[in-house]
Specification:
CATH topology of the largest domain: Aspartate Aminotransferase, domain 2
Number of domains: 2
CATH class of the largest domain: Alpha Beta
Strand content: 5-15%
Largest sheet: 5 strands, mixed
Structural class: alpha/beta
Bound molecules: ligand PLI
Distance between the termini: 38 Å
Radius of gyration: 21 Å
Mean pLDDT: 96
CATH superfamily of the largest domain: Type I PLP-dependent aspartate aminotransferase-like (Major domain)
Strand order of the largest sheet: 2-8-7-6-5
Number of strands: 14
Number of helices: 17
Length: about 450
């Protein structure tokens, strides 16, 4: 049996939000009505919402009180300076362009860096990153290590870039075709897996050799630092703050969604060290987001994020955060449910190819499992598989991703372990009767981003 000791949280609950339980019959009818796409569910019909950890954190009393002093000035907002100071102090970057969320930071960065036909390598691009690169006529390339695709190996840093793959890509395409290299920490598309300090450092060395800028997609930077502390030799006695500063010091900047590790409900930024890039980015920021001292955020949002950037570096918080995700993962492993191992930082990812091995990818097994989990206990999760992957642009065949996953993302500071037990029990019940679960097919498939707007029916 796995060690599932769980340290009590270093906070208590001051404000609560009621949840409604629905009946199985109600959920069955509702699923039919919404075309079996859980994005169409109203949250009032969801008992436990594990759709995402993005923007769903519970804020602290300090964050709420910081919001009251938000400075809503159009120009020169003191709240912007609080955010800027937090980024400089905690991440070490020189310049901050505030955006309404992470994807807006990607938009600005790629606008100033990518030319048509350029290649942008990353361990694994997140969907919005990929889409923004394609939008600028660039070509996103995943160069994650091969261990990332072995769901049962316990390799501790499955978010690492394969340095040889990256080097070969640079040599093959030429450094002028690669405007930047990125690493996503933690690697969301690969199971919330961290990249090691050694790997980040090696990417820095390689990119420096070829004079290519290196950026982090840093949404879950603190969770990545926590894993480095726990898993990488030489970091066990360093503080999270020290580890974060070292990680960031190897990069030229980062795109950042404040909706994850900054414990905020909205917001993001592009952080940079290069003044010329900052000045160029600022002009696009004004066009797409807003003036340089608020970008896409209100003053109060910037205050909440500045405070969140402090709280997330508290090692006690991080310990209980990551351990809660592990608690769920271990319960599933005890019941022999196949999940990505090691357990990720923000989510447990069920290996659907193994869970529903009788359903071919064209019959959308990840979607089938997501629907079944909602039906079983009112739990919303998200498919990260064939539906999300979309179609080949020329043949229009379904893309069959190597990993067919169901993600159970755990919002920060929101659910208790009693909720987590409900999730584990529901999945265990489903696992026992998995042979009876059938696949799905599209009845409406939009031409793009089908994950969000498609409608399905059971086969
Ligand atoms: O949702 P945004 O625009 O604030 O951030 C986009 C984004 C960029 N990178 C990574 C690694 C993400 O995970 C990410 C957003 N993630 C979402 C919405 C999620 O559910 O995982």
């Amino acid at each position: 049996m796995k060690n599932n000791n769980y340290q009590a949280e270093y906070y208590k609950i001051k404000m609560v939000e009621p949840l409604k339980k629905t009946t199985r019959e109600y959920r069955k009818n509702l699923l039919k009505k919404i075309g079996y796409n859980l994005f169409y569910l109203d949250s009032k019909d969801v008992f436990i919402d594990l759709l995402t950890d993005s923007g769903t954190s519970a804020m602290s009393d300090s964050q709420w009180s910081a919001m009251m002093v938000g400075d809503e000035a159009y120009a020169g907002s003191s709240s912007f300076h609080h955010l800027e100071d937090a980024v400089k102090k905690n991440m070490g970057y020189k310049y901050v362009l505030p955006t309404h969320q992470g994807r807006a930071a990607e938009n600005i960065l790629f606008l100033i860096m990518i030319k048509k036909g350029d290649y942008v390598p990353n361990n694994m691009h997140f969907d919005t990153t990929k889409a923004h690169i394609l939008h600028k006529k660039g070509i996103p390339i995943d160069v994650v290590c091969d261990e990332a695709f072995n769901t049962t190996s316990n390799y501790p840093f499955k978010g690492n870039i394969d340095i040889d793959k990256l080097k070969n890509l640079i040599e093959d395409k030429g450094k002028d075709k690669i405007p930047l290299v990125m690493i996503t920490i933690t690697c969301n598309s690969g199971g919330g897996q961290p990249a090691s300090m050694e790997n980040i450092k090696k990417v820095r060395e390689l990119t420096k050799k070829y004079d290519i800028p290196f950026f982090l997609d840093a949404c879950r930077f603190a969770e990545n630092a926590y894993f480095i502390k726990k898993r990488e030799i030489g970091y066990e006695n360093k503080s999270i703050r020290e580890i974060v500063l070292e990680m960031m010091s190897y990069s030229d900047g980062c795109t950042f969604s404040g909706k994850k590790d900054a414990l905020s409900n909205i917001g993001g930024f592009l952080a940079l060290n290069d003044e010329k890039l900052y000045i160029e980015g600022a002009t696009w920021l004004v066009l797409f987001e807003g003036f340089i001292t608020y970008g896409g955020m209100s003053g109060r949002d910037m205050e909440a994020m500045a405070q969140g950037l402090e709280e997330v570096l508290d090692e006690n918080y991080l310990e209980t955060r990551v351990k809660q995700v592990e608690y769920l993962g271990n319960k599933l492993l005890e019941a022999n449910i196949p999940i990505i191992q090691p357990i990720g930082g923000h989510a447990v990812y069920v290996d659907v190819k193994k869970f529903l091995s009788h359903i071919p990818q064209d019959n959308l097994p990840g979607q089938a499992l997501a629907v079944e989990l909602y039906l079983e206990a009112g739990i919303r999760s998200v498919e990260i598989g064939t539906v999300l992957a979309g179609r080949e642009p020329i043949t229009w065949e379904n893309i069959h991703p190597k990993l067919e996953l169901l993600r159970l993302a755990i919002p920060r500071r929101v659910y208790t372990n009693a909720h987590i037990n409900v999730v584990a029990n529901a999945l265990i019940n489903i696992y026992k009767r998995r042979e009876n679960i059938k696949g799905y097919k599209f009845i409406y498939e939009p031409p793009r981003l089908r994950h969000f707007l498609a409608r399905f029916k059971p086969i």
